[in-house]
Amino acid sequence: MRTLVLWTDETKLELFGPMDQRYVWRRKNKAYEEKNTLPTVKHGGGSIMLWGCFASAGTGKLQRVQGTMNSLQYQEILDDNVMQSVTNLRLGRRWTFQQDNDPKHTSKSTREWLQIKGWNILEWPSQSPDLNPIEYLWNDLKTAVHKRSPSNVTEIERRRLK
After folding, report:
1. What's 59's domain CATH number?
2. Mean per-residue pLDDT over the chain, rounded
3. Sheet of 47-55: strands edge to edge?
4. I want to staple 153 with a disulfide (CB 3.0 to 4.6 A). Which of 18, 46, 72, 87 is the partner?
5. Global confidence as pTM
6. How many domains are there within the chain?
């Protein structure tokens, strides 16, 4: 059954976020070496929110979230991306949709929208983001982006599309 699950979630990619924290040892009264320092930016330097999905067959569509996502925007993102991902990943007719219990996912309008769609929904325990395997993909994506040292949010967006 897990092979037919479409795992979904959102994440925030920060330009200078926690992935850029590094620790080095140095002797007392010794200067920092340039190679061990990072540039700093006030107020974090910007970020983008992404919605994505994957199944055992591979990654599905990835979409940037504009602004603060609400239930209607979430439904639009699902409408634009889920069935195309199901088709591309060859999940067939017996696939299952997974989402966490974020309020926009469980709102009355989203529940009604999903019921109309007729998708099989995987029941998800409350406050259990660590159970979703997509978290490992988000970590890999964030690591890959930060290794490339983007200088602005536009660069993050460009690299996301590759």
Report:
1. 3.30.420.10
2. 85
3. 58-65, 47-55, 5-14, 96-97, 120-121
4. 46
5. 0.79
6. 1
